[in-house]
Amino acid sequence: MKTSSQMVAEDSPHKKSWSQCAFEGGMTLGVPAALHSLGAGGAAAVAGAMVAGIHCAIADQTPTAIHFGFGSTHLDVNDRMILDAVAARLGKNKRVELIGHTCNIGPDQVNQVLSENRASAVKNYLMTRGISASRIQTKGIGYRKPAFSNKKEKTRMKNRRVEMIIHR
Question: ∠ at Cα 64 (58, 70), nearest 5°?
């Protein structure tokens, strides 16, 4: 199964080298790229830019979804790194809407609860990063709005997600 980071990197229209990312001073996997300071932060940015070959996916666009394994609400290390970048993007004033989804395997009631729990898992993590609960709206919609076909596992797994919509 692919991680959220891998899906973001594949879906990103921006394919840049790690050096381009670091030079442009973006954010890669939650690591501030501060090469202009030539301090320790700059070295950390270069190292962070090379991690997992993400190629500035997060620097150029904030991910719009976190993906989950079948029946799971677990956030892995890559998911948490993506959410760290999202929390930084939210700053002190922006709000975020989290919409949980599932694939079409299983009963509707089970999928509804799972989608709500996925959105709550993302919300709870963002709250540990300083985003107040009043700025985070969650809802689950089960398998009623698939983004991809549920006919094959390769596309069905992309429906197991929490979409993130950032509002000003």
Answer: 110
